[in-house]
Design brief:
With about 260 residues, this protein is an alpha/beta fold. Helices cover about 35% and strands about 15% of the residues.
């Protein structure tokens, strides 16, 4: 019997890309977003509109599914109140609904949870998080929430620290952070289908020769990226000095008030 996967954030760029690919792989899909799905529904998919801040709506959304692929919420830096409602309160509602039936959650985390490391610093997923704004802070919260839910309730979750997921890389930073659409598909399928995951954190990045990110739980879920941004090199540098200094790029530069000459 086909498994039913809940995909939140289905109307966003990555959700719209993933939905037809997952349907083609044989999953039954329950797509959801706060706004209507803008494309024709893919094969094996139904759409259910919901606001993640509405706890009752989230419980209805999760009921009857087998696993959750959570790409919903605010995807850019915003004032804290907006980020809180969608990315912290909404995510907590989702995990609470998932733990009742121990449904695995695959969470779209972000490189912005570690965005204030300087470029060139080699990181593993056990290095301390250094979020570059309220958006990155919400992703750090999601990873910690997943940790607590596994330790306390046995709820499995896989946290995908997505870099720059684009059709093609367009700037120099992407030579280190690019995640191809094909590799995202491979990563999501590995996270959904792994026999056991525990609480896993995996870099959402392709096999880039210039990657800053290494040790993670990719082996535990069976993820092996295949693409490499280096075939697009060279690419131009963009942004100001702060953007070019930190791994989080332009997110790290937003509302930055420290002396820009400080080390």
């Amino acid at each position: 019997m086909a498994r039913t996967i809940l995909l939140t954030g289905a109307s966003g760029a990555l959700g719209r890309m993933l939905a037809p690919r997952l349907g083609a792989r044989g999953y039954d899909l329950r797509l959801s977003d706060i706004v209507a799905f803008p494309d024709p529904l893919p094969a094996r998919a139904a759409f259910q509109q919901a606001d993640l801040a509405d706890e009752a709506a989230v419980r209805r959304l999760v009921r009857g599914t087998d696993a959750i692929l959570h790409f919903g919420g605010i995807s850019v830096e915003q004032p804290f109140r907006r980020v809180f409602d969608a990315n912290i309160l909404g995510l907590t509602h989702l995990f609470e609904a998932a733990r009742e039936k121990l449904q695995r959650v695959v969470f779209a985390s972000s490189n912005h949870a570690i965005g204030y490391y300087e470029r060139g610093t080699r990181l593993g997923t056990t290095d301390p998080m250094r979020p570059d704004g309220y958006y990155g802070l919400s992703k750090a919260y999601g990873e910690l929430l997943g940790r607590m839910m596994f330790d306390k309730h046995g709820l499995e979750s896989v946290h995908l620290r997505i870099g720059s997921c684009l059709a093609v890389p367009t700037e120099a930073r992407h030579l280190s952070t690019w995640l191809s659409y094909d590799d995202l598909e491979r990563l999501v399928v590995a996270a959904l289908d792994a026999p056991e995951t525990g609480h896993a954190v995996v870099w959402g990045v392709s096999a880039n020769a210039a990657s800053w990110w290494a040790a993670d739980d990719a082996g535990r879920i069976g993820y092996t990226p295949k693409d490499d941004a280096s075939r697009f090199a060279p690419l131009p540098e963009t942004g100001d000095a702060v953007t070019r200094r930190f791994q989080g790029g332009s997110f790290a530069a937003m509302n930055y008030t420290r002396d820009r000459s400080e080390p």
